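Subject: for your reference before the review

Hello V.,

The reviewers asked for a structural picture of the protein, and I figured it would be easier to keep everything in one thread rather than splitting it across files. Below is the amino acid sequence we used in the manuscript, unchanged from the supplementary table.
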Amino acid sequence: MIPNGLWGLWRQPGFRVLGAWLLLSLVLHLAWEIAQLPLYTLWRESTPAFIAWAVVHCTAGDGLIALATYLTAAVAARSVDWPWVAPVRGLVVLWASGLVWTAFSEWWNVSTLGSWAYAEGMPTIGGIGLAPLAQWVVVQGLALWCLRESTSRPQERGTATQVTGDGGHATGR
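And here is what came back from the structure prediction:
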């Protein structure tokens, strides 16, 4: 049963965490996308309108990837609140899945499709730009830190579970 319709579903703790993750990720990825523009040829070869569209387009894609990698980490940790209950395992899965996707996407879009190109200043490894790879380590790590610092661990509404001194659990409403 969905509490209070669709709007009630979005107010559930797990969805609030996903929303916070997505918002943090979008803001941080937007800043990164703007900062790395000079490392791509479009910075010198495209119109300001196209550059703006590319930044919005790439940031939206980054948000979807960030959401997918968060959910992949949640599956691996068996908990949507993995940043609090299994942060190391979740971060490793988050980074690994983000790096694999980014490496594939950069290779596919640069080498195969020609969707974008690197400027001479872009450091590469195996033909893949280091800036986009670093993005998925730095931005996701920072987003995780911000999430943990800005929100508390999600709990079911109206309940609190704490470990007692003798190792048992006490649950209250």
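For the response letter, the relevant points are probably these. Confidence is low (pLDDT under 50) at residues 156-173. The longest strand covers residues 160-163.

Happy to draft the paragraph if you're swamped.

O.
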